[in-house]
């Protein structure tokens, strides 16, 4: 009886397990079917998704007169630091800071009394030495007369000669000391060595100054004015051409203009007068200098300006927006689309910047479609929906600067 009960229980448990397995199998099949249905739906949804739209521009060649821009700095043709050459107390400062001065104007005056006293003392010393020399010469002449008559010995005559020569040397020494004293006296008036604009003074009346006091004030010339900046070695090489010397190449460089810090163009053009004798290997540039008239005083030494160099020749070039160019460790590249509207990468070599555009030296051909907007939405090999952009010639590249 007990055995039968146990067997009946095992039979019921087996049925229960079979039922559970059957239900689980149905659930699993349902999930698989459901998953397959979702995958098909996703594929269908992906196929139906719209292609990303990008703005493209057809690459073309334009005739341009390239305008190159470089950051430069103004420099005075002459920049003189005024220092004291003698020691003493400042009695006066005869200038207004920031104003123009002329060569020879008195700028400072140091108390001259000690130096005037030294001049007076040495003047008296010169007079005394002159009297001594006169007496020595008189004795020498007398000695010559006496030695001929045998009244004095040769030794005595030698002594008279020595005294005459010593008196002459003493007079020369006193005269030299007097000249030095007069020179020091003249240094008590500090004069402007050049004409130009004077800067800010560093001392006040009553201060004790000396040659160790440093710079009292500076004077800079303002007309003309230098502008120094770096240009590409390629531009220098192009200007050099078949020239026989660097000076001829300097003259062959395009006429420069400058843009002021406020964005306005300076109303006078300059002229290159210096090209350095070496190329900076780190930047591939050469330091050059141009000289500009500055009769109105608008340029101030130390200003940062933009040097604008417009090439005289007209050239055909591929010009693309700078925004279309990307850069990685391998260099510059752009995105183009082929006939199947598929994105491709083009490695390019860039030339000069022309305003907001960039000259492409190599890597692009006329007729290719360049992605100019929407780069962040696409990747290589992806199909896109191209939207053509009407490209207008860049008028500023052909304009003549004042």
From TrEMBL:
Record keywords: Coiled coil
Record domain Multidrug resistance protein MdtA-like barrel-sandwich hybrid: where: 79-211
GO MF, one example: transmembrane transporter activity
This protein's GO CC annotations: plasma membrane
Sequence ranges assigned to domain Multidrug resistance protein MdtA-like alpha-helical hairpin in this UniProt record: 121-188
GO BP annotations listed: response to antibiotic
Subcellular locations according to the entry: Cell inner membrane
Keyword Coiled coil assigned: yes
UniProt-listed InterPro entries: MdtA-like_b-barrel, MdtA-like_BSH, MdtA-like_C, MdtA-like_HH, RND_pump_MFP
Ranges of residues in domain Multidrug resistance protein MdtA-like C-terminal permuted SH3: 316-377
Coiled-coil segments on the chain, per record: 119-184
Membrane topology summary: Lipid-anchor
Main localization (coarse): membrane
Residue stretches making up the Multidrug resistance protein MdtA-like beta-barrel domain: 224-310
Entry annotated with the keyword Coiled coil: yes
Similarity comment text for this entry: Belongs to the membrane fusion protein (MFP) (TC 8.A.1) family.
Protein name: Efflux RND transporter periplasmic adaptor subunit
Originating organism: Alkalimarinus sediminis
């Amino acid at each position: 009886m007990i055995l039968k009960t146990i067997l009946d229980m095992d039979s019921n448990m087996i049925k229960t397990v079979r039922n559970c397995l059957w239900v689980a199998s149905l659930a699993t099949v349902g999930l698989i079917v459901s998953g397959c249905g979702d995958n098909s739906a996703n594929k269908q949804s992906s196929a139906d998704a719209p292609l990303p739209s990008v703005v493209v521009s057809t690459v073309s060649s334009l005739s341009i007169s390239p305008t190159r821009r470089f950051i430069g700095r103004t420099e005075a043709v002459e920049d003189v630091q005024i220092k004291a050459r003698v020691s003493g107390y400042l009695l006066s400062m005869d200038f207004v800071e920031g104003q123009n001065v002329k060569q020879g104007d008195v700028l400072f005056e140091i108390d001259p009394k000690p130096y005037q006293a030294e001049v007076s003392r040495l003047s008296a010393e010169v007079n005394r030495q002159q009297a001594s020399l006169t007496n020595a010469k008189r004795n020498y002449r007398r000695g010559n007369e006496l030695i001929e008559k045998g009244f004095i010995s040769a030794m005595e005559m030698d002594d008279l000669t020595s005294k005459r020569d010593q008196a002459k040397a003493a007079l020369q020494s006193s005269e030299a000391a007097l000249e030095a004293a007069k020179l020091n006296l003249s240094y008590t008036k500090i004069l402007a060595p050049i004409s130009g604009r004077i800067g800010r003074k560093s001392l006040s009346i009553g201060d004790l100054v000396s040659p160790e006091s440093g710079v009292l004030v500076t004077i800079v010339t303002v007309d003309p004015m230098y502008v120094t900046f770096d240009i590409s070695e390629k531009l220098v090489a192009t200007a050099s051409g078949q020239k026989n010397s660097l000076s001829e190449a300097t003259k062959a460089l395009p006429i420069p203009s400058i843009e002021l810090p406020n964005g306005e163009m300076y109303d006078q053009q300059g002229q290159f007068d210096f090209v350095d004798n070496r190329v900076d290997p780190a930047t591939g540039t050469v330091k050059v200098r141009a000289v500009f008239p500055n009769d109105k005083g608008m340029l101030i030494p130390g200003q940062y300006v933009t040097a604008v160099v417009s090439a005289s020749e007209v050239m055909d070039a591929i010009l693309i927006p700078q925004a279309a160019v990307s850069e990685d460790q391998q260099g510059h590249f752009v995105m183009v689309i082929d006939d199947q509207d598929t994105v491709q990468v083009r490695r390019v070599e860039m030339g000069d910047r022309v305003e907001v555009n960039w000259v492409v030296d190599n890597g692009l051909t006329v007729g290719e479609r360049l992605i100019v907007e929407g780069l962040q939405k696409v990747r290589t090999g992806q199909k896109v929906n191209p939207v053509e952009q009407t490209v207008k010639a860049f008028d500023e590249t052909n304009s003549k600067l004042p």
